[in-house]
């Protein structure tokens, strides 16, 4: 994308906060394998896992 203003309109959330969270987490000794950044990501991941558990239980 050549236009930075267009890119900024497409990015949802706080890219600087996300980048810092990734750096902080990677510097931690006990960092998890996965990290949900943002409420939308958390909700989507959670819903997918709930569906997988329901399928497993069935």
Structure in words:
With 58 residues, the chain is mainly α. It contains three helices and no strands. The chain has helices spanning 4-10, 15-27, 39-57. The chain is flat and about 50 Å long.
Topology of this protein?
Blueprint: H1 4-10, H2 15-27, H3 39-57
Stretches where pLDDT is under 50 for at least 5 consecutive residues are none
User: How would a textbook summarize the main sheet?
Assistant: none
Mean pLDDT: 83
Distance between the termini: 45 Å
**Morphology:** flat
Oligomer: single chain
The share of residues in extended strands comes to under 5%
Q: What's the β-strand tally?
A: 0
Order of helices and strands: HHH
Structural class: mainly alpha
Percentage of residues in helical conformation? 55-70%
Rg calc: 16 Å
How many H/I helices? Answer: 3
Give the key terms.
3 helices; mainly alpha; 0% strand; 58 residues
Task: Put the structure in a nutshell.
Helix content is 67%, strand content 0%. It contains 3 helices and no strands.
